[in-house]
C-alpha cells in the first residue's frame, strides 16, 4: 500500500519562533496517523534542527529540507549537502520545486544528480514536476511532465524509483487565479503513473506516492485526496496556518 502524505512547504516564510509555534500547534491538534500516512514539514534550512527536535518521535511525522546540492561537500557557499542533513537525521528533501527551476535555472539533468545523491545517502527525494500556463493552454502538459520524469528519474532502477515521492505542481494553478479541478488533477496523476508503468511496470508504478501541489487547502483537500491516483498534497500557503493544515492532514484517506 502506497503512502498517503501531507507535505508542508514553508518556502521562505516565518521566523524561528513562529515556525516552532506553528509546528507545536499542528502536532497538538492533528489526528493520530495510520501506518500508511505521513506528515512531512519542509522547513527553511536554519530551522531544520529545531523542527526535528519538536517533531521528535511523533508517529509518522518527519522534517524535510527544501533543497539539497548535487555534491557531497566542497566549495559551494550557501548550499546544503546530504551529509549535513544526515548529521541532523533529516530523511527527506524536496528536489526540483518549480521555484527552483524557474528562479535558479535548475535543469532536469541537474535534478537527476540531486536525486542520485539523495538516494545514495538514504534521503527520500520529494521530486517535483509540472507544467507552466503556456504549456497547459497549448495542451502540451503530458509531454512536458513525461520529459521531466524521463530526464530526471528514468535512469533509476525499479527498486530506486520506488523510494521517490513525486509531487505534481500545476504551475498554472498557483497564484494565477486559475484552478485545477479534481478531475484535471486526477487525469494528470493517472497519466504520470501510466508513464512510470510503461517504463517500470504497473506493480512498481502502483507503489509510488504522487502528491498534488496546486493550491491545496482545507476546502478542497478531501475531494482531491479521494481521487484514486492522488496520494496527498504538497501544500504551500495553507501549511502556514494551524487549522488549515490540520484539516488537510485529516483529509488523508
Automatic annotation (TrEMBL):
Subunit relationships: Homodimer.
Record has Nucleotide-binding as a keyword: no
Originating species: Arachidicoccus soli
PROSITE patterns for this protein: TIM_1, TIM_2
Annotated metabolic or biological route of this protein: Carbohydrate degradation; glycolysis; D-glyceraldehyde 3-phosphate from glycerone phosphate: step 1/1; Carbohydrate biosynthesis; gluconeogenesis
Designated gene of the protein: tpiA
Any single biological process term in GO: glycolytic process
MF terms in GO: triose-phosphate isomerase activity
Protein name: Triosephosphate isomerase
A Pfam match: TIM
Transmembrane segments: none
HAMAP family for the chain: TIM_B
Lineage of the species this protein comes from: Bacteria, Pseudomonadati, Bacteroidota, Chitinophagia, Chitinophagales
Record NCBIfam families: tim
UniProtKB keywords: Cytoplasm, Gluconeogenesis, Glycolysis, Isomerase
A GO cellular component annotation in the UniProt record: cytosol
